[in-house]
Each structure stands twice: as structure tokens, then as C-alpha cells.
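To the team - adenosine-5'-diphosphate complex, inputs and output below.
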Amino acid sequence: MRDRLSVVVGDITKLEVDAIVNAANEQLLRGGGVDGAIHRAAGPELQEECRKIGGCPTGEARLTKGYRLPARHVIHTVGPVWRGGNAGEPDFLAACYRNSISIANAQGFASIAFPAISTGIYGYPADEAAAIAVKTTMDALLELGGDPEKVIFCCFSEEGAAHHRAALDSILQ
Ligand code: ADP
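Output:
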């Protein structure tokens, strides 16, 4: 399992993978943070395809093409807004990872990269989010079998990466 999961620090829009995951909003309208960066790099066709989809409830995921991105596809998932932790946030966040991996599995994508969903504007504590990201991803890979062969946690800061490495180490020890 360890060789299928990696943690990198960097800009997810630069990754050449079968799919990058976008931390989108329920309207699937271009926003800030990683969503803004992905739309900027992909070009206006991405917003057009998102508009046709029409939206996505929190915890679910939707697939589009990657357009001008080096990634061939974008999986848009909507993380929960942090409201203190007792509003179902952990379950919604886990659903984002599970549903995104499920799409990659069904599509036969060998490689997928995740940003740290909900940990920016949506305010989810980064250490708790990383633990859910890693645990849910491992469980989904074991349960589904096959693709995706490689999962990258693409963090925007060294601190975010440290949380993901710590979560990996604590689960795999
Ligand atoms: P959310 O609304 O789900 O919190 P954000 O985009 O605000 O989404 O933040 C999610 C995470 O993505 C944050 O940790 C943020 O630092 C990170 N991030 C922002 N831009 C990029 C990027 N270009 N590549 C990777 N991660 C990014």
C-alpha cells in the first residue's frame, strides 16, 4: 500500500495524472483557492462543462475533462464547510475521498491527485482532515481493488504535507 500513496508539496495544476481532484463548491462555479487555480489553468471550457452539470451536493463528486491542464480529467468534489465538527463534517469529508476514488476506479484511471479538501476557505483543521484523507483513501483502495494504482496527496504547504505523512505513518506502522 505504501508505494501506491505519495505526498508532495506543490501546485496540483502542474501534475500530469489521469485526474486531479478539485475542491469545488456546490454550484460548481469558479471560486478561489485551488478551484480558481484549476479553472485558470484549464481554460474557460472547464467552466462551461461545469455549468452544464449544474451543481454537486456536498460529499459527492462529478467528472469533467481537463482541457488545458496536464491532467486528463478533473474530479470535482465538494468538501464540507467546517462548523465546529459536530455537523457531520468527518463523514462528508470521507465521502469526498471515497466518491472521487470510486470514479477513478470506474473510469480505469491509474493515477489521481488530491488537494487537501476543505482545509482552505472551508476551514477544516488540517491535521484532522489529513487523517481522514489518508484513512479513507486506503480503505477505498483496498475495498475496490484495481485502479487507481497511484494516489498523490498534493499539499500546498510543507505543513500540510507533514500532516499527511504523519497520518500515513500512524496507519501503516
Ligand atoms: P476549500 O474551500 O475546500 O477549503 P481551498 O481551495 O480554499 O478549498 O483549499 C483547499 C486546499 O488547497 C488548501 O490547503 C489550499 O492551501 C490548497 N491549495 C490552494 N491552491 C492550490 C494549488 N494550486 N494546488 C494544490 N493545493 C492548493
